[in-house]
Amino acid sequence: MSWRGRRVLVTGADGFIGSHLTERLVEEGADVRAICVYNSMGSYGWLDEATEDVRSSVEVRLGDIRDPEFVADSASGREVLFHLAAIVSIPFSYQSPRTVVDTNVGGTLNVLEAARRHGVDRMVHTSTSEVYGTPDRVPITEDHRLKGQSPYSASKIAADHLCDAYHRAFDVPVVVLRPFNTYGPRQSMRAVLPTILTQLMAGGDTIRLGSLKPRRDMTFVSDTVDGFLRAGVAQNVEGEVIQLGTGVSVSIGELFELACRVTGSDAKVEADPERVRPEKSEVMELLSNPSRARERLGWTPQVELEDGLRQTAEWFRGQLSRYRATRYYV
User: Fold this and answer.
1) Cβ pair 127, 284 in contact under 8 A
2) I need a surface site. Which of 107, 238, 258, 309 has the fewest CB within 10 A?
């Protein structure tokens, strides 16, 4: 799996998974161009926190994934496109569904058109386990029916179908990766684990959360990134959907208890109605069957949940000044 000299574009490189992927590609010797969302401060998001060696090695372009000309120009001369740019907040999708659809569906269309125009070797599109909704059966396999239980999940279903259509109609060499719940350093406070950890480490006796019953398949970010790298070079996977998950689920309540153990806290949970999803929108369990990733990519997760949680807690402990632990982030 050699990336040395490969010309790569990463969309969403300023984000959680995208920044880790960008760093890893630089370490592997790739020629990396990165799209970060335009802002008036000229920030590159989490790439601003990368080492000088990484920052000096990446060609960063600020822009908007919804701009087809910008995306097409950014993809020029690239061999592999990693498409991670998206709005991923489920609560925000309740408030601004059009923005989410324009970004997640329209943005994916722009990347597909760029891949088609420039004849790239591989496009790796980022899906989500949320596309399954509350599943009919577990563990979930890639052929499970898709069910949009939020505007966010519906937008990702549409984007996934566009990828399938472009592969069938135009032979675009796209593979759809479907990560389950990735966690680790730099994750947004919109996710449940950072919400738990920051409240615990801020010293609170009572932690405000939504429902404790949903179960999630938690994958550490370094494992997810490894899956992306493998999907970028694997042979004969064009047109396929491949899940990235551990095959083990944990409830939010169990995750809270584990977080208390690794941080040495004896805090209790208080239900916060603001953090509870609408009843028909809550996805009750996401549990992957990782066999296809093992067979097609040679991928297996390496980081156990408790070890990954300790690494994540250690990182957040050094970053508490960035976050307002008691605030509910949409």
Assistant:
1) no
2) 238
- Of 92, 114, 154, give the one whose Cα is nearest residue 11: 114
Contacts of 69 (CB under 8 A, 6+ apart): none
Burial class (CB in 10 A: 0-12, 13-18, 19+), 208: middle
Q: Is the pTM of the predicted complex or chain greater than 0.85?
A: yes
Quote the tokens at residue 166: 């472009």
Q: Which is the catalytic residue, given 38, 44, 94, 152? A: 152
How much is the average pLDDT of 131-158? 97
Single-letter amino acid, residue 236: N
For residue 112, what are its two tokens?
A: 């597909």
Tell me how far the alpha carbon of residue 182 is from its chain's centroid: 6
pLDDT digits 0-9 by tens, 47-94: 999 999 999 999 999 999 999 999 999 999 999 999 999 999 999 999
Block residue for tokens 């569904």 = 97
List pLDDT tens digits, range 269-280.
Answer: 887 777 777 878
Burial, 259: exposed, middle or buried (Cβ in 10 Å; 0-12, 13-18, 19+)?
buried
Q: Which ranges of the chain does DSSP label H, i.e. alpha helix?
A: 16-27, 52-57, 68-75, 90-95, 97-101, 107-118, 151-170, 192-201, 221-233, 252-263, 291-297, 305-317
The answer to whether 9 and 74 have CB atoms below 8 angstroms apart is yes
CA dihedral 281, 111, 229, 193 (to 10 degrees): -30
* pLDDT at position 323 over 80: no
Q: Is 166 a catalytic residue?
A: no
